[in-house]
Every structure is written in structure tokens, then in C-alpha cells.
């Protein structure tokens, strides 16, 4: 598998002098085609800032980001906008879809932005939405869709234009647990099926059972990378047990051990 | 792509956009009616003067270009005609009389007399308008008149008909009968339709504060219309007109000579009336700019998250600008179209006496101004949309 994304010693510093805040600190990793990774960590760990730099929405203070071998830092604003449109797929926490476009039109939007949408593009959009279980919701507006359906439309939009890298920011933030599992499972299947490089930013560690690698960040640094299946499953299930225990006993998370066990 | 987004958004939110189009339609109706009123009242004041087939007009020197205050004796006319470069000159005298309308109203009463401007001219000289039907005035003392098309319509008169004029002579009402020999185009003066009569005939008819035993031997007029031997070249003609103004004022004593435009701009009330109506019209346009600007700015504020997502997925600024411009233009154009249809439909059922005239040029200028207020009002919202950062989509915008 070839490398789709390579991040080399990327640092992002906001402000300067005494007010400088290091949001991302010397981060390096790569993602291969067909690989789906999770970027996890507590709030303020720098994962969303890193995602913004991967999408070309922010310039790194130091380091380089290569997508398909092209250095994002060497592109001007217009080139980065065009690159995002052509090579990156994106889903967001909320407000993903244009409220005045139907599900099918929202998916076709990426193709239209990239030069037009003829009958083949329409066929692709219908096929993708049907595969995502939305074959009977093609002409519904976002307000007529549930949160899970909206996220699935956003996933279809992120994949329709054959991007190199698919980025998703907290895709399950507004969904219940069952819907969240469904959406991420579908997303993972498509990333693997279409051989795209996928990165999901999430704070819900239970969803890591669907990814190939987990990159855990804290204070702007990568503190742990899990790439073995059993390690990842153990990591995710520990979090699931922890969450289930919290729900069952209503004790505060702070009183649990990091493995989700009750303290002795 | 911008047009695609604009049309989809407008169509799927058509109720909201229809409301703002209706607002534009009402503004259009307001601006068009004010423009029509300005045109109608303006014409009512100056139509006869602006239609004059003359190059210059002479006033009494110290009359401050007020027609009613200007008195030019017969001798001055002869002096003007002697100045080299003058082709011909004609005295013009203005007053007001009433035409007694025949028949009775449905209530069995006599109809209200039609007030008209009585314009006295010398037959065949500058000041006598060309007729569309019938013939020009022929007899200096003839009991004949040319009526304008408004008098013909309102009094139901045609060529060959006789009509009665009521005029106040001292404290007595006197009645005079004249025959219509010609009908000319609308020639309003002082917001009234006009009848044009020979100077000597009119001198007997026009209202007088005191009854004179004998007509005055020294006939006078308010102004004198002067026609020049103008060169064919427009630039030379302009220069010649200026030269003749100075020459006439230096060679004929106690007169002030101006061109036609200056003459009607100094008609009492004309400039003040035009200024007032123009101010109202511009104010309505400014209100339009502010209302549309406010609407589209609020809409842009509500769409920050959407615009952020659009930019994050790679939508260039030119597409965002095009979408906003197309949307603003469509909404404004539809409103202006609707307003024009409403205004012109209402104009068809307006009573004849209301001085509203929709001159093509005035309507065109008003419509172009109205079409421009949308994009002008929307500039702020477009600027705001362009400034939305794509990081907004990730909640990272500063």
C-alpha cells in the first residue's frame, strides 16, 4: 500500500512571545491508502488543529504535510482551496449539509464544484446513497432527515469525488450510541472498500474498534500509537466498559481507573 | 455553480424571498409614482415653454425672470427684431380664464368650468405652437383659438366647435365665444391646459382688475420669444446663442435674455417642486438600499456555518460572490418587475386629472436605479460572506 498522507515534524504555535500557545508539537505520522485511523485525545490536545492543518485550512508553523506527494505548505490559498476540493473529503460535527439542497444534490455538490455533474455523476450519487441505505431519501431535504441519515449523506459527499484523504471531525457528536456505531462502521467499510486514507477525530474511544490505528494526543504531542488489532480492541473495550459502568452506577469517571475498573 | 446554489436556495426558500421581493415591489411602485408625479407636475408647469419653437426668451430686465412680473411694451418687440441675427420674434402674454362646459351633470347641475391658461400670441410668430389638426391662427383680431389636446379631451371640443370663456372684468363676469380652428399637442402652463388666441383678441378676453373704457393703445406682453438665424453646426449654434444674448441685452434696453431651459427652470415653483419630488425619490432609493442591505446582511449572518462548510470543502470565493450576486439580482429584478406591473396597472385606472406621467426616459432611469439598489445594498453582506473563514466549519475560527 502506498502512502497517501505523510506528516513530518509538524508544529503549530498560536500567538508569539509570552502569549505563544503550542497547539501541536512536533507531530509525525503517515497514513496509507485504505487505512482508517482515529485521532483521539482530550479537549485541547491539538487534534482538531492538526485536522485543520491536514485539510490545508491552517499553515503549520514548522514541518511539512504531504498528500499524494504534494507539500501543502508550498501552496497558496487558491491552490489549497482547489486541492481541498479535488483531493480531500470532509465531514463535520454539525451543519454538514446545505439545507436548501436535497440529499442527492448535497452529494453531487462536490462533483459540481469540480467541474460539473452530468448523468454519470448523478448515477454515482444515487448509487452511493443507496449503498448507505438512503435510496428512498434521495430527494429529501436535510431537515427531513435524521441526524444519522444526515451524517451518511455527508459521508457520501466526502467520498463521491474520489479523494485521496477523507477527514471527519467528531462524526458522531450529535448521534446516539447505536447510530454512532452504525455511521462509523459504514464509514470504515467505505474507506477500506474504496481504498482511501481516512482520519477520524473523536473523543469517543469506543468507536476505535472500527479503525486500523489509534493515535492518541495530549498537550499537542502524540503520546501513544496503537496499531495492533488486539491492542486497539482492548483500548476501545476498556473505554466501553468504563462508559457502561459510568452509566450503570452513576459514579463519576474520575473515580475509575484508566482501564475502566473501579478503584480498589 | 454560483447560479446553481443561488437558484436552489432561492427556490427552496421562496416564501422568504418572495416577501423581500414584495418589499422591493412596493418601493418600485413608490419610486415610479414619485417619478411620474415629478414628471407630470413638471410638465404641467413648463410644457408650453419647453415646447416653444424659439432660441431665446426676453424678459423685463428687473422682473427677475418671473413671467407674471415681466411687462414688455410693443416698442421692445420692434427693437429686438432690428438686432442683426434675429430671425423673428413673437410676444407672449399669459393669464387664466375658465371654459364653460356644455351639458349638465347626472345631478342636473352645470358642470364645473374648466380652468385653462390663456396664452396670447401673434399669429405666425414664435410662440404659436404648430397644430396637429385644423389650421394655425390667421386673424390678429379673430374670434378663434387653438386648443391643446387636454382641453379638447376634457371639454369634448373638436375643430370647428364654438366654446364660451368666462373671464372676470373688474367685478363683473364676462362671457366670450371663440371657435376652435386647430388642436395642438399638450401645452400645459401653470399646471393647467392651454388655449392659444391672437394677442389682440386675448387682450379683450383676459381678466382685468379694472374695466378699461378703451383697449390700451400700447399693447404689452409678458415675454418675447426670439428665433435666431442659427448656424447648422451645434457647437457654433451654442456659441451664437450666447453671443446673441449679450448683443440683445446691449442693444435693447431694459431686457434680460435667457435660453429656454433657464426660462422654465425659473418658472415659479418649478425648481422647488422638482427638488422636493427628487429628494423623495432619492430618499426612497436610499431606504431601498438600507432595507435590502439589512435583509441580506442578516441572511449572511445566519449562514456563517453553511458558508464555512462550503469554503472548507473547497468552494472558491468567486462562487460564493456569484451565488450572492445572482440571488440578490434575481430577488431585486423580480421585485422591480412586480412593482412595475402593479404601478402601470394602477396608472390605467387613475382619474384623468391626476398629473402622473410615465415618460419612457424617466421610467427607465427609475428602473435602472431600482435594479442597482439590490447589488448595492448587498455589497456589505457579500463582503461579510467572503470574510467567513473555512475554519468556522471546525469551530476554530478566530
Q: Share of helix among residues of chain A? A: 25-40%
The quaternary state of the protein chains shown equals: heterodimer
Mean pLDDT across every amino acid position of chain A: 85
Helix and strand composition category of chain B: alpha+beta
Number of domains of chain B: 2
Shape of chain A: globular
Let me know the largest β-sheet of chain A: 6 strands, mixed
Q: Could you tell me the strand content of chain B as a percent range?
A: 15-25%
Terminal-residue CA separation of chain B: 28 Å
Name the average pLDDT of chain B: 87
Calculate the terminal CA-CA distance of chain A, rounded to whole Å. Answer: 46 Å
User: How much helicity do the residues of chain B have?
Assistant: 40-55%
Largest sheet of chain B: 6 strands, mixed, barrel
Write down how many β-strands of chain A occur, each being a DSSP E stretch of 2 or more residues: 10
Please report which band the strand proportion of chain A falls in: under 5%, 5-15%, 15-25%, 25-35%, 35-45% or over 45%: 15-25%
Residue stretches of chain A low in confidence (pLDDT < 50, at least 5 long) are none
Low-confidence stretches of chain B: none
How many beta strands in the DSSP annotation of chain B? Answer: 12
Order of helices and strands of chain B: HHEEHEEEEHEEEHEEHEHHHHH
Can you put this structure into words, describing what you see?
The complex is a heterodimer of chains A (264) and B (398). Chain A is an alpha/beta fold. Chain A has helices at residues 47-54, 77-87, 103-113, 119-131, 147-159, 177-194, 229-249, and strands at 3-14, 21-32, 36-40, 62-67, 70-71, 88-91, 165-169, 197-202, 213-218, 221-226. In chain A, the strands form 2 sheets. In chain A, strands 6-7-8-3-9-10 form a 6-stranded mixed β-sheet, sandwiched between helices. In chain A, strands 2-1-4-5 form a 4-stranded antiparallel β-sheet, with helices on one face. In chain A, a hairpin with a 6-residue loop joins β1 (3-14) and β2. The longest helix of chain A has 21 residues, at 229-249. Chain B has 398 residues and is of the alpha+beta class. Chain B folds into 2 domains: 2-44 and 271-393, no CATH class; 62-253, no CATH class. Chain B has helices at residues 2-12, 14-51, 74-82, 149-155, 199-205, 234-251, 260-265, 270-302, 304-312, 317-348, 360-387; strands at 56-60, 72-73, 86-100, 114-121, 131-134, 144-148, 162-169, 172-184, 194-198, 220-221, 223-228, 255-259. Chain B starts with a helix and ends in an 11-residue tail after the last helix. A 6-stranded mixed beta barrel of chain B has the order 3-4-9-6-8-7. Chain B has a two-stranded antiparallel sheet with strand order 2-10.
Amino acid at each position: 500500500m502506498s502512502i497517501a498522507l505523510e506528516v513530518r515534524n509538524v508544529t503549530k504555535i498560536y500567538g508569539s512571545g509570552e502569549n505563544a500557545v503550542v497547539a501541536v508539537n512536533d507531530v509525525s505520522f503517515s497514513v496509507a491508502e485504505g487505512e482508517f485511523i482515529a485521532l483521539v485525545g482530550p479537549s485541547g490536545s491539538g487534534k482538531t488543529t492538526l485536522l485543520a492543518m491536514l485539510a490545508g485550512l491552517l499553515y503549520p508553523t514548522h514541518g511539512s504535510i504531504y498528500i499524494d506527494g504534494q507539500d501543502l505548505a508550498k501552496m497558496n490559498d487558491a491552490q489549497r482551496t482547489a486541492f481541498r476540493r479535488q483531493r480531500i473529503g470532509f465531514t463535520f460535527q454539525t451543519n454538514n449539509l446545505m439545507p436548501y439542497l436535497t440529499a442527492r444534490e448535497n452529494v453531487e455538490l462536490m462533483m459540481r464544484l469540480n467541474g460539473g455533474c452530468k448523468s454519470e455523476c448523478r448515477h454515482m450519487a444515487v448509487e452511493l446513497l443507496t449503498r448507505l441505505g438512503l435510496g428512498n431519501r434521495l430527494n429529501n431535504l436535510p431537515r427531513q432527515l435524521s441526524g444519522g441519515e444526515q451524517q451518511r449523506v455527508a459521508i457520501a459527499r466526502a467520498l463521491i469525488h474520489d479523494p485521496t484523504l477523507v477527514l471527519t471531525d467528531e462524526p458522531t457528536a450529535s448521534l446516539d450510541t447505536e447510530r454512532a456505531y452504525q455511521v462509523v462502521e459504514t464509514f470504515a467499510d467505505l474507506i477500506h472498500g474504496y481504498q482511501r486514507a481516512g482520519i477520524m477525530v473523536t473523543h469517543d474511544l469506543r468507536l476505535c474498534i472500527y479503525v486500523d490505528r489509534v493515535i492518541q494526543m495530549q498537550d499537542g504531542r502524540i503520546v501513544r500509537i496503537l496499531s495492533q488489532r488486539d491492542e486497539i480492541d482492548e483500548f476501545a473495550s476498556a473505554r466501553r466498559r468504563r462508559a457502561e459502568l459510568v452509566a450503570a452506577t452513576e459514579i463519576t469517571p474520575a473515580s475509575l481507573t484508566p482501564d475502566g475498573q473501579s478503584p480498589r | 455553480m454560483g447560479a446553481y446554489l443561488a437558484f436552489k436556495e432561492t427556490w427552496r426558500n421562496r416564501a422568504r424571498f418572495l416577501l423581500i421581493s414584495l418589499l422591493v415591489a412596493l418601493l418600485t411602485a413608490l419610486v415610479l409614482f414619485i417619478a411620474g408625479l415629478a414628471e407630470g407636475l413638471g410638465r404641467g408647469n413648463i410644457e408650453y415653454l419647453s415646447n416653444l419653437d424659439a432660441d431665446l426668451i426676453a424678459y423685463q430686465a428687473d422682473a427677475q425672470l418671473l413671467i407674471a412680473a415681466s411687462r414688455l411694451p410693443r416698442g421692445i418687440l420692434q427693437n429686438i427684431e432690428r438686432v442683426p441675427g434675429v430671425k423673428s420674434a413673437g410676444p407672449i402674454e399669459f393669464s387664466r380664464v375658465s371654459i364653460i362646459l356644455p351639458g349638465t351633470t347626472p345631478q342636473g347641475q352645470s358642470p364645473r368650468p374648466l380652468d385653462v391658461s390663456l396664452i396670447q400670441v401673434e399669429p405666425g410668430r414664435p410662440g404659436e405652437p404648430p397644430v396637429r389638426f385644423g389650421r394655425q391662427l390667421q386673424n390678429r383680431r379673430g374670434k378663434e383659438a387653438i386648443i391643446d389636446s387636454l382641453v379638447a379631451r376634457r371639454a369634448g371640443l373638436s375643430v370647428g366647435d364654438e366654446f364660451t370663456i368666462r373671464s372676470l372684468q373688474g367685478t363683473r363676469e364676462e362671457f366670450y365665444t371663440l371657435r376652435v380652428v386647430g388642436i395642438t399637442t399638450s401645452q400645459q402652463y401653470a399646471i393647467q391646459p392651454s388655449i392659444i388666441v391672437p394677442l389682440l383678441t386675448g387682450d379683450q378676453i383676459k381678466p382685468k382688475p379694472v374695466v378699461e373704457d378703451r383697449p390700451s393703445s400700447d399693447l404689452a406682453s409678458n415675454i418675447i420669444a426670439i428665433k435666431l438665424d442659427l448656424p447648422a453646426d451645434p457647437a457654433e449654434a451654442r456659441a451664437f446663442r450666447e453671443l446673441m444674448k449679450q448683443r440683445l441685452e446691449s442693444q435693447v434696453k431694459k431686457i434680460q435674455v435667457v435660453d429656454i431651459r433657464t426660462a422654465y427652470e425659473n418658472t415659479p415653483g418649478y425648481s422647488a417642486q422638482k427638488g422636493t419630488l427628487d429628494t423623495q425619490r432619492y430618499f426612497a432609493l436610499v431606504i431601498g438600499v438600507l432595507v435590502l442591505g439589512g435583509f441580506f446582511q442578516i441572511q449572511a449572518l445566519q449562514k456563517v456555518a453553511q458558508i464555512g462548510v462550503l469554503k472548507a470543502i473547497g468552494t472558491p470565493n468567486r462562487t460564493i460572490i456569484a451565488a450572492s450576486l445572482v440571488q440578490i439580482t434575481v430577488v431585486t429584478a423580480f421585485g422591480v418587475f412586480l412593482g412595475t406591473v402593479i404601478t402601470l396597472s394602477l396608472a390605467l385606472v387613475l382619474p384623468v386629472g391626476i398629473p402622473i406621467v410615465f415618460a419612457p426616459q424617466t421610467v427607465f432611469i427609475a428602473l435602472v436605479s431600482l435594479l442597482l439598489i439590490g447589488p448595492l445594498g448587498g455589497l456589505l453582506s457579500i463582503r461579510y460572506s467572503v470574510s467567513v473563514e473555512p475554519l468556522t466549519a471546525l469551530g476554530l475560527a478566530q
